[in-house]
Amino acid sequence: MLRDQNSSAIVASRDLRRSKQFYTETLGLDVAEDMDGVFSVKTGGTMLNVYESKEAGTNRANAVVWDCGGDFDAVVKELRSRGVKFEEYPDLGMKIENGIHTSGDFKAAWFKDPDGNILHINSMGGEMH
Fold first, then answer.
1. Residue 47 shares a structural domain with residue 77
2. Same domain, 69 and 117
3. Per residue of the chain (129 residues), what is the pLDDT tens digit?
4. Quick one: pLDDT at residue 6?
5. 75 close to 121: Cβ distance less than 8 angstroms
6. Among 53, 70, 94, where does a domain finish?
7. How many domains would you assign to the chain?
8. What integer pLDDT is reported at residue 33 of this predicted model?
9. Which end of the chain, C or N, has fewer beta carbons within 10 A?
């Protein structure tokens, strides 16, 4: 049934113009589809869909995760150069330095889009987990 079907991430936006600017200019993603009330950006082999909703930003958990593998540090550097501010979550019990959370060799960082949706990058190698 669903195990043979593709899935994609979806996040809500109160202002699609502002969100499109963030996802394309700040995160460097390419628009794949642009329709009334929704647009999609390509990220790796998947799509991230952003749709208009007055409920945008009400989710207080991860909305999207990118497994960056060995490119983690380069991705962090690029995001910082584009103005991304990383969040700190001390309750996770990880070491935190300048917004980067570590546990052993694992690295993770969280940041928010303009609506407050929580986005996450980590040093995992892109395998499904």
1. no
2. yes
3. 778 888 889 999 999 999 999 999 999 999 999 999 999 999 999 999 999 999 998 999 999 999 999 999 999 999 999 999 999 999 999 999 999 999 999 999 999 999 999 999 999 975 444
4. 80
5. yes
6. 53
7. 2
8. 96
9. N
Helix (H) or strand (E) holding 100: strand 100-103
For position 19, which CATH number holds? 3.10.180.10
Counting beta carbons within 10 angstroms of the beta carbon of residue 123, is it exposed (0 to 12), middle (13 to 18) or buried (19 or more)? buried
CA–CA separation, 110 and 2 (whole Å): 29
pLDDT of residue 95: 97
Handedness of CA 78, 85, 124, 102 (dihedral sign): positive
Q: Which of 74, 63, 71 is nearest to 23 (CA)?
A: 63
- Number of residues in the chain: 129
In this structure, the dihedral spanned by the alpha carbons of residues 87, 7, 25 and 98, taken in order and rounded to 10 degrees, is 20
Residue-range definition of the domain harbouring residue 107? 60-129
pTM of the model: 0.89
Q: Are 111 and 101 in contact (CB under 8 A)?
A: no
Same domain, 74 and 31: no
